[in-house]
Amino acid sequence: MTFFGLLASVLVPTLLGMALVRLQLRQRPLDEAPAVPPNWPLVIGYGGVIGAVVATLLMRLSSLAGIAWNFWVLSGVILGLAILLHLITQNNQRGDLAALEVAPLPERTTKSAEPWLQWLFYGLLALLVLRFINLGFEVTQRPLYPWDAWTQWATKAKVFFDAKAMVSFATLDTYLTANAAAVFTDAAPTYPPTVSLLQAFSALSIGRFDDALVNVPWLSCWVFLCAAFYGQARQWGMSAIAALLATYVLGSLPFVNTHVALAGYAELHMATVFGLGAIAFFSWASGSGDKRQLFIAIFLLLACVEIKRPGIFWLLSVVPGVFVWWRPKVGLILLAIGTAILIAAGFAFAKSGMTLAGFRVGQDLSEVSIPIVQNVFLMGNWNLLFFFGIAIVVFSWRSLFAGVHAVLTSVVFAGCVFLFIVFYFRISAYVSDFTTINRAMVHFVPVLVFYFATLAWARVQQLGSAAADNEEFYRGRMQEPRSSPKRQNAQQRLPALADAKSTSS
Amino acid sequence: MPTDITPELTLAPTEKPLKSFALQVLSLFALGLFAAFSLALFRAHAGPLFAANEPLVLTGDSLALTAGLRLAENNLAEGVAPQFGKTLIIARPNDAGSAVVALKLPPQVAGTYRYIEPVIKGGVATGGVAFIWRGGALKEKVRQRDIAFAGATALAIAVEPSDGWTGEIIGAALQLSGPFTAPIEIEAVILRAPSLAATAQRLLQGWFSFEAWDNSSINFLYGGPIDLAHPLPLYLFFGLLVSSGLYWLLIKDGRVVGDARIYWVLPLLFWLISDVRWQISLLQQARLTSAAFFGKDIEAKHLAAEDGRLFKLMQTFTAKMPLAPKDGKTGYRVFIFSDEEYTRGRAAYHLYPRNTFALPGVSDVLAAKSYNVGDYIALIDKKGVRFNGQTQALTWGLAETVQVELLHFENGNGLFQVRGAPQMPSVALPSASANTSPILPPANPGPAPKF
Q: DSSP 3-state assignment of B68?
């Protein structure tokens, strides 16, 4: 019963999310090109994330309406909505099941790939499955472990579950004078409740607060992140093996895995919601023409502010990308000017102590570069990600501002500026003791991995084109008369083949 | 197709037959790994290439939790230390929080051995483990090298003449600083002569040791020894640069034709080295998790966790605090105070969904006016508070006092329910400096408290 309850707590919102992702409100014109099979990894991945967020919104609405939570009633409402949306879509699709189409690249599917690539594909998939089993075991067996999880996130979940509704959490001053029956407190009473609501929903599904099993949303979040990432990479035009390689890089990162296994923090959900939202925006900005990507991006980016307080700044980091998409040159100039102003303001207000959106601006400037270098490059947090990333950026420097990559580069740059300001001006003490470096960076990592992957893919495509040109060169040269200088030049480049040729003739 | 084109040319020159591509990739990969490991050895190794002596394994009678080793700055160990076979088991440190295991060393040990590798199992010495010795030119000076751990594995340390490991070594020992999480088993202390193989073993041991979850794992992972002197990611990237550079040179020289697949297969192989290391660590962690928690219900899991004793105490407390009715009007709060932040926060977590107060940085008991009748006050490892059994009052600070009923008292920890408005105490309060012990049993014993 516990297993089926937990499964339902994941699957039911996912079905609603999938229905939302696939929603088509307008009838498909008869003369529109026939649909191709939907990008199921993308639909499932985004469906899972969006469905989870929507489920928490329904829990909030239920609380506001004074209706006590009941898992089966909530699930019934969610399922009913999913069926309704599916029927609308089906009607407008005229029986087709097409949703977000994948660009037809039949030569890049696994079925037509060389055998060793197919083996590699399934080998990487097997590694991810092994990781899933390993992480799933940790999540479901170990009681809530990390510090903030039991001081500020699961505390709310426990109270919400007991009350079968949302309950107010207040700061110390309000708490001491408030009604003890109605107002609670914990280490972070003003933090957004979304992550706590996910835990409460899992607890509702099994009828008790088991603080190992309520962390199943972290495992499902990791799965949906990987699925959606793979789907978006394929949507971008990458081959199946390239997309899975990028997904494996993201899904196997030790720090990401740790936040699944030691579940309870909001970092993984922050990374997933912001990352998938930004990637959906990139996909739409690339000229896919699918407005659903834009709607998904808007929904998820707005949802960032309800995951963690830094979510507002991650949302704002996409704004330069919007400007660059709209007016590339103007946008890039504005980005450069804005960056200079922000950094100058950081220095200027370093000692003022002023507050911005609840964050105190102004810590003494201190040397944090060494801890950042240690955590990013020398320790076991990110494998070789940043080494590869820098190499890819260096070798792709000509493409950084070419076409849609200008949008990605501007968002990545804005994110880096945000982290720079946070590390050097806001939380330097927590950087020096390694507490917050990686937890701040992980929010940004899915976007970074996607950025590196798209640059690498473009570069490999360029090299492949050059190689194809080489092939034309060699074929052309080999058709020249044997005594021609061009053929002799080619023969020097391929001595073994030339020897075989001279032997056979 | 022209007849003079050989069959091989029907393949694109950039896509070789799989066998030759695989050979090329694996060769470059192996060369890169060799270059990376060579660089690591070059940086890490000092001394002769080959060991002049076999490793010296100190076990059994060669280890002694003894008073015989007189070290100027350290108290003698007084732990309970039975010996099971050749393993020395230390149940607890002495009252000063220290346990010292003397090593019976042969003469001329400094000239022969350079690496010290303790084999330690069981509990964790929360204050750390150090190798200490006296010798060399300054015989009275106690020298120390901290033992680093990668997860649960103690890593070998290298002691150099510049550290004072030279001349006659008068005495050497392992010093373990407590408290201990569980009895610590010293299986052996292995001394190795300097050699390239010992250095290589030390490097590989550091890179591939198991890193168990601890309180800092959610913030960062070391991925090897904590001194970061030889970081595996950096060496792997160096190896990739060597492989890539060599491949580029071969292309430039015309010896090979460029193959685009190399540009992603080679980085993948280097990535896999590090990822396989991480996966193995995860599997080892799963074994520990399984041993501790698999097959248990959530209550048993909590009792098996590192705060099991605290959870048990909170179970007792919650039995004394019935849940408030959910009418939105009547309720109570539970105030938890402890001098340890972890204890405070963790105890509060176990008491939710009760309305619990335990804020970070707030270890002092709040002013008496903060409490309403019916609220609870839990004091766990809290100094500076006294309970007067005659007046049934808690007192703390500058004559702060509140009327309470004692609900439970255990090992210096107590649960009280607020009964009335604060009153002046009927007995003189001891001075604040005298309150150096945790909460005391009733100072003037009245009727025995009911538990």
A: coil
